[in-house]
Design goal:
The protein has 287 residues and is of the alpha/beta class. It folds into two domains: 211 residues, P-loop containing nucleotide triphosphate hydrolases (Rossmann fold, 3-Layer(aba) Sandwich); 68 residues. Helices cover 32% and strands 29% of the residues. It contains ten helices and 14 strands. It has a six-stranded mixed sheet, sandwiched between helices. A four-stranded antiparallel sheet has the order 2-1-4-5. A hairpin with a 2-residue loop joins β1 and β2. The longest helix is centred in the middle third of the chain and has 16 residues. The protein is globular and about 70 Å long. It starts with a strand and ends with a helix.
Length: 287
């Protein structure tokens, strides 16, 4: 594993912001970090980046302790914060070069290639850029370095829908290149699009771990039938009719579901993946 948290805990006096977090991220893997404000997401990221010292437990990145060996650990990661603070006296290209120089990395044609994909002129001064354009410059600085780990905190803030799609494509390319990505976001559709695994935090505790491929096994089924609605579903479990419509969750084999549906005269039927929303709301009502 590239990044490993073992019982990672951060307390501020009697307030525990993060409580015994166990988490790992492997090369070539995108892991989503979910939870509302105050759930411990930002605290986790700051501990991984060596910005905070853990109260107990450890965070190890590439074999280096994220606090005790923070300089070595930070050489292995790029970070996009939710709230940007950029050097407005520079152009986008100058900022990318400045940050690259700090790492001992130089960038050439790849700056223009990625800038074109992100629809941005890297030679525009940051003072003349909108918040969305500045976010694109930050993405240049995060995506270009040859590091094994990228940490993203609400990365699509201020991006328009087209650029959000392009950003998600860049994440897939980074994953294909073997990079690990830790992706904190409130936008569940984006998490579903790129993440291999998801962890949900609640009041500083990890309350759920979800392998995204397993979600495809769970379906939400809504059926409207002619005549008397069924009282049991295809798996034999009781279902509660709502007028002439029946709704239930199904995790069995699809042919079995199709055979069950064929036994009824249907007005209409809807079958869709369960998605992260229902799981997230299980722990964060209204989230």
């Amino acid at each position: 594993m590239l990044l490993v948290a073992d019982k990672l805990t951060k307390a501020y006096g009697p307030t525990v912001a993060l409580d015994a977090l166990d988490l790992s991220v492997a090369p070539g893997e995108v892991v989503g970090l979910l939870g509302p404000n105050g759930s411990g997401k930002t605290t986790s990221l700051r501990l991984f980046l060596g910005f905070l010292k853990a109260t107990s437990g450890t965070a190890i990145l590439g074999g280096f302790d994220c606090w005790a060996q923070s300089v070595q650990a930070r050489k292995l990661v790029t970070y996009l914060p939710g709230e940007l603070r950029l050097y407005d006296t520079m152009t986008g290209r100058q900022l990318v070069k400045f940050l690259g120089d700090l790492r001992g990395e130089t960038f050439g044609r790849e700056v223009d290639d990625l800038a074109k994909r992100l629809d941005i002129d890297p030679d525009t001064p940051l003072t003349r850029m909108s918040s969305g354009m500045k976010r694109k410059v930050a993405l240049l600085a995060v995506l270009l370095p040859k590091v094994p780990l990228i940490i993203l905190d609400e990365p699509t803030n201020t991006l328009d829908p087209t650029m959000r799609d392009e950003f998600l494509e860049q994440i897939k390319l980074a994953k294909a290149a073997g990079k690990a990505i830790l992706f904190s976001s409130h936008v569940l559709s984006e998490v579903e699009a790129v993440c291999d695994r998801v962890v949900i935090l609640r009041k500083g505790k990890l309350v759920h771990h979800q392998v995204m491929s397993e979600l495809t096994e769970f379906r939400k089924v809504s059926v409207r039938v002619k005549g008397t609605p069924p009282t049991t579903g295809p798996d034999g479990e009781a279902v509660r009719p709502d007028g002439d419509r029946v709704r239930f969750d199904y995790a069995g084999e699809l042919p079995k579901l199709m055979a069950w549906l064929a036994a009824y005269e249907l007005h209409d039927v809807t079958i869709e993946p369960q998605g992260l929303g229902a799981i997230y709301r299980r722990y964060h009502a209204g989230g």
